[in-house]
Specification:
321 residues, mainly beta, globular, 21 strands, single chain
């Protein structure tokens, strides 16, 4: 059905400067991206070769301020992201047409965004390190995946009119003893359509599918001697699977355990390791096929599994003592 060669070339010159005056620092940045996509149609008797060049400038301004044991920061930036080759070249069939045209999806444009962020990072009594940030992003022409009945099993992409991203990121880490360390993180991500980009649907204020609103991570590390034992707990909340928010992937909690050690054998450093993933043997969906045809959104993840391995380092590969 198709026999083509896809070529991509990009250039992105940028300039960056930092100015520091006492406790205040200012970062300025500018970049210009140009990405050229080319398709060479190799079929006999048909030539749907073509090319597109997508380009845009981006700017960034950041400010930091030191206060006692903390650093306050704020950023505002614009960004430009082209579709990938797969997203751009998978042109969807027009209604009533057979699957699938080759060449470029001429209706697919890059997404552009403006983001702002404020936050603080620092430490408490030199024992607890922390970071907190709030951000918002307004995205224009965001890339949204979908499928069509005429081409079941294949994914295509369109531009949403506008989406709004708002979030909170919290993280903390501490060392209880020289051998025991704890760390944790929480992320709140609220991504909604402000304009779904389609006159045939009314999905405004719906959540953008495929994005987990709440994510919690916690880890404990014990390092007795040359060994290291790590326990990691991850929780992902439920997430919508389609633009209409009528289906969702349920949330899940995973426990992963890892252990490794290091042995010196003459001129070799031998480091065996073992990992027990999904220790609770939780059944969950590891990824989503967003807006899949016939409701086939869900892709299962592995149950409980064990990974065994060893790394070998010698000669110039060895780390300095």
């Amino acid at each position: 059905r198709r026999d083509q060669e896809d070529r991509v070339a990009s250039i992105g010159p940028f300039a960056q400067a930092r100015i520091e005056t006492g406790r205040v620092g200012v970062m300025l940045g500018a970049r210009y991206d140009a990405v050229r996509f080319e398709t060479i149609d190799r079929r006999d008797g048909i030539d749907q070769s073509g090319q597109r060049t997508l380009h845009s400038p981006s700017m960034m301004l950041g400010v930091t301020m030191s206060v006692a044991d903390a650093m306050l920061f704020a950023n505002v930036a614009s960004a430009f992201q082209t579709p990938t080759t797969t997203e751009l070249i998978n042109a969807p069939p027009a209604p009533g047409e057979a699957c699938c045209p080759v060449g470029f999806n001429t209706g697919l444009e890059p997404q552009r965004l403006i983001s702002t962020e404020i936050g603080v990072r620092g430490s408490v009594a030199q024992r607890v390190r922390y970071e907190a940030a709030l951000y918002t992003m307004n995205v224009r022409d965001g890339l949204v995946q979908f499928q069509v009945p005429e081409a079941e099993g294949r994914s295509f992409f369109r531009n949403a009119g506008r989406t709004r991203h708002r979030g909170v990121e919290l993280a903390a880490a501490t060392s209880l003893t020289p051998d025991i360390a704890l760390s944790s993180a929480y992320t709140l991500t609220d991504v909604r359509f402000r304009d779904d980009g389609s006159p045939d649907t009314q999905f405004e204020d719906n959540r953008v599918p495929g994005i987990t609103p709440h994510r919690i991570f916690a880890a404990a590390t014990w390092s007795p001697g040359s060994a290291r034992i790590i326990a990691e707990l991850t929780h992902n909340s439920s997430q919508p699977a389609d633009d209409a928010n009528t289906s969702e992937s349920p949330g899940y909690t995973l426990l992963d355990l890892r252990a490794r050690t290091s042995l010196a054998l003459r001129s070799f450093d031998v480091a065996p390791f073992v990992a027990l993933n999904n220790a609770f043997d939780r059944k969950y969906f590891g990824s989503l096929s967003v807006n899949a045809a016939a409701g086939r959104y869900y892709e299962p993840a592995p149950g409980r599994n064990i990974v065994l391995g060893v790394s070998l380092r010698t000669g110039g590969w060895r780390q300095p003592e």
